């Protein structure tokens, strides 16, 4: 999910809209879109599932309930959550998704996939060691991989 209505919230030229809205309301809208995307049947993996934090704008409120509802939606839909290292290179300075969200996904049986959101060859696989550490901390021991939209699993390396 990259848009809330007509707003491309992850575009650097449009970040002023964060200050024009209540952050918790934006997060609720965003995670509702993530849940609806999962339920659509169009996707095998929900990529960068908390991308809304990209520029470091976060509500003061505890997001556990939003994370739980969204993790439940991913589990019901049978999709994977992507652990994406690109967030480390933006003001969020954190892997997508946040540890609390990832741990809830694991607890609900949501498989995990791994990505670096590479837009250039040198970005492929960057910081995967940190992602693997986060996955292990959340309780994962394997990754989902796909070939022609058919899911299989590989053991998580050390």
What order do the helices and strands follow? EEHHEHEHEHEE
Would you tell me which CATH topology applies? Answer: TIM Barrel
Tell me the fraction of residues in β-strands, as a range: 15-25%
* Number of E-state strands: 7
> What is the helix tally?
5
User: Which consecutive residue ranges, at least 5 long each, have pLDDT under 50?
Assistant: none
Q: Could you characterize the architecture of this molecule?
A:
This protein has 158 residues and is α/β, with parallel strands linked by helices. It has one domain: Metal-dependent hydrolases (TIM Barrel), CATH 3.20.20. It has helices at 16-19, 23-39, 64-77, 99-107, 128-138; strands at 3-4, 7-8, 45-46, 80-84, 112-115, 142-147, 150-155. The chain has a 3-stranded parallel beta sheet. The N and C termini lie far apart (31 Å). The model has no long low-confidence stretch (mean pLDDT 94).
Please give a handful of descriptors for the protein shown:
single chain, 158 residues, alpha/beta, TIM Barrel, 3-stranded parallel sheet, two-stranded antiparallel sheet, 35% helix, globular
Topology:
Layout: E1 3-4, E2 7-8, H1 16-19, H2 23-39, E3 45-46, H3 64-77, E4 80-84, H4 99-107, E5 112-115, H5 128-138, E6 142-147, E7 150-155
Parallel strand pairs: 3-4, 4-5
Antiparallel strand pairs: 1-2, 6-7
